[in-house]
Amino acid sequence: MPLRINVRMLLAAGLIVLLTAGGLLFVAVRGAAANTPVDKKLSFTCPFPLIGLQKLDVHIKADFEVPTAPGGTLSTSGLTITVTVPDKAARGLNLVGAGTIEGTAAAGVTLVNGDAKPFPVRIPLTVAKTDLPPSGSFSTVATGSVPTVTLAKPGKTTLTVGDFTTRLTPKKADGTFTGIGAFTSDCVLDPGQDAVLLSFDLGSTPTGRQYSVAGKTGVKALGATAPLTGGFDLSATSATVFTGGPVFDKAHTDFRLFGFLPGTADLEFVADGPQGGDFAGTGFVARPRFTTVLPLVTLIGMPVSSGPGCKTSAPSTAELRTGDGFTLAAGGELTGTYALAPLTGCGAFTSALGTFVQGEGNTFDLVLTPR
């Protein structure tokens, strides 16, 4: 009977060590700077019946980035959590016939974003099934899905370690239970360590940006594309709103009317009123408003319309969204769609030209490069 009690106590200790370490590592990966690799060790203490308090070191590796403006999210990649379980725990598990261990953990952290109230976050973690050696220490790797956290407020932002709840189930080699059930326990971070895993100032207003633009526009009704070049100037007016937008150089496209009549068209996108948009995550959504001018249109080499009066009868508004991986500092992809209204001022061919130009589903596919 005493032997059975001691085995249970040793096993519980091993479970506590493994799961608590996994939970701590999972949280710690949130605490690096933008686009910075993390390779860090922290220690915590768990109560071990019979053998007393034991300290465990855990190893964290990950890459993560923080948002550049309020409204963005914390993101993490390459998370690797390695936990080394001591020999005493391994021997205790073997004494009850355990051949593998597996389980879960819930790590508690507190997020403070600017002047917002502290926000508690519970982070789930899965400890993969791990084979146990007959004796000696062993390592296990913990993984999980990091929850997306949106930072809405400007100012100092911190993420601090809180409580850790751990639960693990030992099983025999054939997958059956050992009869001692699953253990749940809490552990604490060792004193004297900095419990703040992440600390940075989230700017209240992003800086202005200037980009070179390259890409193309597609006119659906005409079945043609035109290469585009130009610029994009962005000036923040608040933490979430900016003014400015794309300014395109004159574009040119070749097309075939009815599939066989060769034609050409010059295109100009002329801004109509104030331009701007909203910051979103690490990028933005722009809503440029413009009139499309066709200063020259030819068919079979002959001009059928010329002059700046040939244009859409109403302005278009595009919704341009930055793509995955876009940052204000590095630029990236910007895409969107727009509609073209009927034409006006194109002379005798106004109605005919309008039939082959107007309509929805026109596209912008652009790449923004910082100047």
Provide a descriptive summary of the structure in words.
Residues 43-197 form the DUF6801 domain. This is DUF6801 domain-containing protein. It comes from Amycolatopsis coloradensis. Pfam families: DUF6801. The protein is mainly beta and 371 residues long. The chain folds into 2 domains: 2-202, Sandwich (Immunoglobulin-like), CATH 2.60.40; 209-370. The chain is 11% helix and 57% strand. The protein contains 3 helices and 27 strands. It has helices at residues 2-28, 87-95, 350-355; strands at 36-48, 52-65, 72-85, 100-113, 119-131, 138-143, 149-151, 155-171, 183-189, 196-202, 209-219, 224-236, 241-243, 246-248, 251-257, 261-271, 276-280, 283-286, 289-293, 296-299, 302-306, 311-312, 316-317, 319-322, 332-340, 343-344, 359-370. Strands 1-2-3-6-5-4-8-9 form an 8-stranded antiparallel β-barrel. The protein has an 8-stranded antiparallel barrel with strand order 11-12-13-17-18-24-25-27. Strands 15, 16, 19, 20, 21 and 23 form a 6-stranded antiparallel beta sheet that branches. A hairpin with a 3-residue loop joins strand 1 (36-48) and strand 2 (52-65). Helix 1 (2-28) crosses helix 2 (87-95). The longest helix has 27 residues, at 2-28. The protein is elongated and about 95 Å long. It starts with a helix and ends with a strand. Residues 1-34 have low confidence and may be disordered.
Name a few traits of the molecule.
single chain, 371 residues, mainly beta, Immunoglobulin-like, 2 domains, eight-stranded antiparallel β-barrel, 11% helix, 57% strand, elongated, disordered N terminus, DUF6801 domain-containing protein, DUF6801
